[in-house]
Write the structure tokens for this entry.
Amino acid sequence: MKALVDLIKQKDTCVCVGLDPVIDSFPDEIRCSAQSVEEKLVTFSQGIVESVAPHAVAIKPQIAFFEQYGLGGLRALKEIGSIIRDAGLFLVMDAKRGDIGSTAEAYAKAFFSREGDFFSDALTVNGYLGSDGIFPFYEAARNTQGGVFVLVKTSNPSSSQLQDLRVEGQPVYEKMVEVLDYVEQPDEFNTLGAVAGATHPAELKKLRKRMPKRMFLIPGYGAQGGMASDLQGAFGEDGCRAIVNSSRGILYAYKKSHLPWKEASRAAALEMKEAINAVRYK
Amino acid sequence: MKALVDLIKQKDTCVCVGLDPVIDSFPDEIRCSAQSVEEKLVTFSQGIVESVAPHAVAIKPQIAFFEQYGLGGLRALKEIGSIIRDAGLFLVMDAKRGDIGSTAEAYAKAFFSREGDFFSDALTVNGYLGSDGIFPFYEAARNTQGGVFVLVKTSNPSSSQLQDLRVEGQPVYEKMVEVLDYVEQPDEFNTLGAVAGATHPAELKKLRKRMPKRMFLIPGYGAQGGMASDLQGAFGEDGCRAIVNSSRGILYAYKKSHLPWKEASRAAALEMKEAINAVRYK
């Protein structure tokens, strides 16, 4: 994921905006318009991408929020993918896919074929099935200079039920890091990255020590409770080895602002960028 | 999943046919036809559903194989869903979804809304995120009398890397069973079932003892190496608490047969049904 590190350096921001569209939460001018579901999704997402582009490095569409609207939602996702790439932003498809053999290859084809409808720069992957469930994604991503973010320690409260169980003195989530290292040796730049939640600051710091160079995708910032101060020590020596995601806090910033919706989202992205840049090198 | 148990009793079969369509493997009459990708997928899948309907209880479309063909593949999947339900078969969507909170709810909406494009009787779910990642699926499935199959012990070789790690003398996959029990208490009929591979017969038997009544989805039969004799003790006291999946062995049976493709698939499903029925009550 050298391209992502370069983009972070160039734009001086680690902000990733999660695209979790819920039409009922859209501003009235879109929600109440005569547009189709598909058009509403595209109009809103395009507005968000344009608003946050100066302050964000990546956009992370959460595919569930498109799937819930059926085929119309997925047609919108295809169009939004082009909008994200045209804006020069890194597209992380948050699909948490995970399967083996030919099935994993089929998923990898869906997300890492340049001519495909859902071409992405990076994909989130669930590694519960072991290295067989990661390898096909890794290979496909490497071929397109893309990336794969494997769930290591997630941001939700019940992540502890499985991920924190101790095996020979180590939590299961550190065993997941061993699976990553088994698929791809750590290097200056890697194809495999890790998902590690902002809501677990101590674990995040520990994971950075364990993986000095791998890219982290850090969810849980903002609405889920994670703050910039929780991210100290998460960005690696060059301060560029993580992207931090906020979804609702940026998408629906207009609800807590006197600004029009696009300006409210832009202001929220700027505020997040500055808060994070203040801790990136600490 | 009482409806599935009833259907197994009524049809006297535990066969589940995995729909993993790969156009390059289709019979020439479809592969070389002038049909679009979408039409080819529908024609082949419809032929399979009609062929195996007398001997199968469930069809399991693997969504990756549709996603790899982009929007056309997903349009085909919608149409195939109707075909499966019209044939009176139980539709297990193999999507291995797993996420939390509002995202899991969005996925649940995608697969458990009767008016949705991808309405399914049951869904496979990856529980690495803990109970937060299972609960929204459980609730949505319960509302439609559907089911959720949570990955417990998968059929692939590297499943041991994480799932077999020992925590306080127990493997991680048994800890996953505790998460299931935490979301839904075991009962005579449950909404939550378990995925447990045919390629691990000893673990399968152990898991049945641990979960006497829950429905099992057992992958790994046939092409992946699992045999009927590996399934002894997997079906519970009434012999109706598991469905066994074969994909390639049935879809592409014509390649190892002198019969036309549909007849070859029907014969393969019949053979599988009989082999499994011979061990269901052992």
Remarks:
- The beta strands of chain B are 15-19, 58-61, 90-97, 122-125, 147-153, 166-167, 170-171, 192-196, 216-218, 242-246.
